[in-house]
């Protein structure tokens, strides 16, 4: 009986140590994975271009634009990122096809680096705030 309790205690300590070690790794979140949900659509947001009241489509999930997306994703949220890269950041290799492939990832990395962000090729809140977005009328500007 006593041996069983000792083994359980040792197992508990080992599990606790593994959890703490995991927290150390998980605690070093990148800019992209600090958000909690994956983008799956767009929301209309006002940007600072043109007359200051231009509407642009921004990647979102539900009612929030605090989301992440990366290679392998597809949809209107990817199209919005590709429009920003191609038309506002002059990354002409990007095809605006709604599919986040390796070229979109590479070009996003280049833009992230130029904007002073971690160039991981993953779209997240910090990238959202620094990208110039293409408005529905074709102007480019950042979010206010």
Automatic annotation (TrEMBL):
UniProt-listed SUPFAM superfamilies: PGBD-like
Keywords on record: Signal
Pfam families: PG_binding_1
Annotated TM spans: none
Signal peptide: 1-34
Ranges where the Peptidoglycan binding-like domain occurs: 74-131
Organism domain of life: Bacteria
Name the record gives this protein: Peptidoglycan binding-like domain-containing protein
Organism, scientific name: Streptomyces hawaiiensis
